[in-house]
Amino acid sequence: MKSTGEISGRIVTPRGIIDGTVSFKDGHIVAVSGNPAADNGLASTGLTLVPGFIDLHNHGGLGGAFPTGTVEQARRAAQFHRSQGATILLASLVSAPPEELIKQVEVLKELCAEGLLFGIHLEGPFINACRCGAQNPDFIYPGNPEDFGQIIGAAAGWIKSITIAPETPNLVALLELCVQHGIIVSFGHTDADFETTTHAISQATALGLKVTATHLFNAMPPLHHRAPGAAGAMLAAARNGEAFVELVADGVHLSDGTVDFARSERAFFVSDAIEAAGMPDGNYILGVLEVEVQGGVARLKNGGAIAGGTSTIAQQFRRHVARGMTLCDATQLSSTTASRVLGLRQHAIEVNAPLNIVALDSQGQVAAVYVKEI
Fold first, then answer.
1. How is the cofactor bound (predicted)?
2. Is residue 55 among the annotated active site residues?
């Protein structure tokens, strides 16, 4: 990719939509010029330019699996999602014995150091086996600060997020490790009620932690008007500015109506993609469990639970813009809010920001990705 040049089209900026040109030099944006334009969907001709997509929950793609793959397999997965516009990506693991998690974070930290991955997300093992979803319940166990500390040490600073059940033992000790190492705590895979989840969120925020919900509504009790459960607690916390919530907005994990219901300035899209993303229907693996993909929907062969996703953030962006969502709202959900979760100061198409742009054609397909190389 050229480090100096310019690109024109309909541009989503922090101050609204313009038709214009972005100029960049040495990997930074040096000028953004143009005239105001309507926020009425993708450009009918030419390109639409949006900030690079951010995916904070991703298990792989194009046949490469972050939980079990080699460096080269993980690199293939990361490069696939980069080609589809996810310029900032966390590699998600699943519950496994601590020695296996240590082994895999040592694999992935090489790609983190290269700048291909932004970091690592541990989805377990300190979750609730009764809400295991597509994770092996044999590898799920109560919160163990010693094990967590060893995994953190092996990752050499690249653990950015961990999914924990609010009801797991030793929660405060786990949260304190998150504070020490700058790790986001994401509550999920839980059977906790509203009160337990709310208390856990309060404990985390009192320590100054960033809090998210792991794939809201999935792997937690259904929302009920007399028992709002973990999902209700996370939505209430988001409304109060105490948490952010992940939405797998692919039409499989959540209906489009549920996405509309849960949308806010503190919600963001994630793919929950597995190695089947970008691949045809067939048989795949998530962790150690066999997965079958039919019609683009991944389910465990044994039991039929949804087993991660096959979409990309770009596909979710395209899906919801096609439904009538504005470009600004779709950008917030696919990029801007997640950048706040990560604490990124300049993840936007504006002067002085690092070059980080996805160009979409009139059908919403990724035409080009412009990103400052590390």
1. Binds 1 divalent metal cation per subunit.
2. no
State which fold the 53-342 domain adopts.
TIM Barrel (3.20.20)
Question: Contact at 8 Å (CB) between 49 and 359?
Answer: yes
* pLDDT tens string 191-228: 999 999 999 999 999 999 999 999 999 999 999 999 99
pLDDT in tens, 51-103: 999 999 999 999 999 999 999 999 999 999 999 999 999 999 999 999 999 99
Every domain of the chain and the residues it spans: 5-49+350-371, 53-342
238/348 Cα distance (integer angstroms)? 23
CA dist 359 to 6, 46, 120, 173, 208, Å? 12, 10, 26, 44, 36
Q: What is the pLDDT of residue 3?
A: 73
The CATH number of domain 5-49+350-371, selected from 3.30.530.20, 1.25.10.10, 2.60.290.11, 2.30.40.10: 2.30.40.10
Burial 194-230 (b: 16+ CB within 10 A, else e): bebbbebbebbbeeebbbbbbbbbbbbbebeeeebbb
Split at pLDDT 50, 70, 90, the class of 372 is: confident
Mean pLDDT to the nearest integer, 308-327: 98
Q: Is the pTM of this model over 0.90?
A: yes
User: What is the token pair recorded at 61?
Assistant: 């793609």
Answer yes or no: is 319 a known binding residue.
no
Q: Which of 138, 193, 272, 329 is labelled catalytic? A: 272
**Is 146 annotated among the ligand-binding residues?**
no
Residues in the chain: 374
Residue 347 counted as an annotated binding residue: no
69 within 8 A of 100, measured Cβ to Cβ: no
- Cα 151 from Cα 145, distance rounded (Å): 10
